[in-house]
Amino acid sequence: MSEKLWGGRFSENTDAAVEAFSSSIDIDKRLYHHDVEGSIAHCRMLAKCEIIGQDEAETLIRGLEQIRVEIESGGFAFLDRLEDIHMHIEHRLAEIVGSTARKLHTGRSRNDQVATDIRLWLRDMTRQLLGGLHHFRKALVDMAESHIGVIMPGYTHLQRAQPILFSHYLMAYYEMFTRDAHRFEDGLKRINILPLGSAALAGTTYPIDRDYVADLLGFIGVSGNSIDAVSDRDFIIEFLGAASICMMHFSRLSEELVLWSSSEFGFVVIPDAFSTGSSIMPQKKNPDVPELVRGKTGRVFGSLVAVLTTMKSLPLAYNRDMQEDKVPLFDAADTLCACVDIYTRMFPALKINAPVMEGAVQTGYMNATDLADYLAAKGMPFREAHGCAGEAVRYAMEKNTELHELDIDELRSFSDLIQEDIFNLLTPRAMIERRCCFGGTSTGNVLEAIKRAHEQLAEDALILIEP
């Protein structure tokens, strides 16, 4: 029982099946760097506060650095009986420096230690994710800028609605992913709080300096309640919530790319490097990347639900159930980062079929709203104008023609307010340029949005390079 950090109270060995069942080392060993980092900071603080000697601290730090090298070189042995990465490191430290290793755990518990490790890891992951989202947002803006003249149908209910600039469509996704980035940025404020020093749940009797540890590890503050500090996983849930929203945006974009790359639409061509073929149909080219991103969205949603379910009935403070937070967290973070990376690589290589997009705008009575607006501007109440335009659409449908293909006498049969100038307003380009209210699809508006986005990306880049 001496190998167990908690073995003194027990009179028999842990069953091997229990060791295997309760072991988390296969999952949490990826926290090794942050565990070593946190332990070194804790060790420096213990020496500063004269809880251990300076020479003892230097010995412990050399041992911890050696362990980090061993793990990174692949020469470190992981065993189920040692349960988690924290026990592995402390066990190996005792082999290297002897009994001095037992002083490292002074003034802390595995409860506040693991909470610190997860926060350190998630802080790094969030910053990595923000960098990836920055590159993808820039790819969207660059494509919008280079395709500023392309017209396409805008849809509601997946039915052609009104003409828009393709660049306006791209900037809609820029807005979505910018909100995602801001959610992750805001979440960093709550991730970046130090729980170390809370010990098991009640704090510690040692005269520790938590602010000093926070400064060493780059935390912006320390937790205000020791019970909450060791049992809080809100920051994980918040990250998973932001990740789920972000994946939902990727899934929506994926759905459109799957549709648009089909023969029925033909709006875009996904590069061969990001597609696969069929094992039986030689002509097939499948949009695998968008389909996989769309499918992986469910995994991230599931991770959010898993952690919420784990936490929903736990009494304060720490419970072993909370060991299950890492599998969904790691999987969701890895999945989202992979999706951001693959889309950043794929998106600039998309081929945009502008003639097909613009051809699709010529049919579908997409200028009916502009006919109604024209009549309303002439003084007709809009609801009457709407009905008048609807009658004109029905008439055109019966003739199997478009509104702008009707002659002036046919149009005037629906209202004497209609004059020859109507034809100048029913072209796709005119309809787009007339929508010049802030946020609308006119070329000037979209160019301004692109300019603002470049400025915002430049500001965000400065934040990303801050230490």
Write up this protein.
By secondary structure, the protein is mostly helical. The chain is 60% helix and 4% strand. The protein is built from 19 helices and six strands. The chain has helices spanning 16-22, 25-28, 32-48, 54-73, 85-97, 110-146, 166-191, 210-217, 226-231, 234-260, 288-311, 326-346, 354-360, 368-377, 382-398, 408-412, 422-425, 428-434, 443-464; strands at 151-156, 159-165, 193-194, 221-222, 268-269, 351-352. The strands form three sheets. A two-stranded antiparallel sheet has the order 1-2. Strand 3 (193-194), helix 8 and strand 4 (221-222) form a beta-alpha-beta unit. Helix 3 packs antiparallel against helix 4. 36% of the residues are buried.
Number of strands: 6
Q: Which class best fits the helix and strand makeup?
A: mainly alpha
Please, what is the oligomeric state?
single chain
- Helical residue percent? 55-70%
CATH fold-level assignment of the largest domain: Fumarase C, Chain A, domain 2
